[in-house]
Design a protein that fits this description.
This is YkgJ family cysteine cluster protein. It comes from Pseudoalteromonas holothuriae. InterPro entries: UPF0153_domain (IPR052572). This protein is mainly alpha-helical. It has one domain (about 5-110). Helix content is about 35%, strand content about 0%. It has five helices and no strands. The longest helix is centred in the last third of the chain and has 14 residues, at about 100-110. The chain is globular. The two termini are about 25 Å apart.
């Protein structure tokens, strides 16, 4: 995996203080979500309250609504957090594997704090 840090820092500066989910999809074509990946349910923090997370979720904390096979129990339900609903998979964020996705999302989380 190439070092995305300079590019991600550039994007973070361009879009401060815009939340991560807002700038991920700007000008980038979405891809099909990689089923059983779960990176977007583990790496980012979520500040809003939602089922099983009354105080939100810390970055790196596995969402308690993620099944053992990394599928969201809240998918398609109104109680799913807006940030999760708004997130759209893109290749530059999700990489080509779940491990790459975790690494990229961790870096984005750090850059957008």
């Amino acid at each position: 995996m190439t070092n995305l840090t300079p590019f991600l820092k550039y994007l973070a500066e361009l879009h401060k203080p815009v939340k991560l989910s807002r700038f991920i999809t700007w000008g980038v074509e979405n891809m099909e979500c990689r089923l059983h990946c779960g990176a977007c349910c583990i790496a980012p923090s979520i500040s809003s309250s939602f089922p099983l997370h009354p105080n939100g979720k810390e970055a790196g904390e596995r969402c308690k609504n993620l099944t053992d096979d990394n599928l969201c129990k809240l998918f398609g339900k109104p109680e799913r957090p807006k940030v999760c609903h708004d997130f759209k998979a893109t290749e530059w964020v999700c990489g080509s594997t779940a491990i790459e996705a975790i690494a990229i999302l961790n870096e984005l989380e750090t850059l957008t704090r």
